[in-house]
Write the structure tokens for this entry.
Amino acid sequence: MASIILKRSMLMKSTVESLRIAASSAASRHYASVSAGTDLVSAAPDVSLQKARTWDEGVSSKFSTTPLKDILKDKKVVIFGLPGAYTGVCSAQHVPGYKKNVDKFKAKGIDSVICVAVNDPYTLNAWAEKLEAKDAIEFYGDFDGSFHKSLDLEVDLSAALLGPRSHRWSAYVVDGKVKALNIENAPSEVKVSGADVILDQI
């Protein structure tokens, strides 16, 4: 048992270090495409996301997607993006923080708490179920990264064998317009994009 725990600890440290290395190459980037006041639908025109679901549900829906405007129109939402399903920090800290605080978000008038990642919707669905978070959080895939590319929130995490992914971020959005935005300096960190920070910004 001690050997297994040690191996897991070493793997987690290795993954975090890989994410830090990958992030260092993007440290000089800027976030010109999105900021407080940005209309996300205008910034990402014609972009659709893929609601988390099983493969069979995907087939029965004829692989339908959901236009971004339909997700955001006339709603108050909190959106958070992360590098990917089943990765360490995302599984251990980022999603659980939002799951734990979902009632506090609802009490502040938030209609939906939404997680978006550069993953296919089937992987996201399995991950959400494993985290027992699907009832609290809406999970959407950005399978080709088009949403994050449109917002200049894409990052190359090839050093961690992840390829093009999303920065770790969060936003409070009302009727499609960004009211507050938080972006981590490194995808291995949850310093400004966690649930506790965005709660205070609503």
Notes: Confidence is low (pLDDT under 50) at residues 2-32.
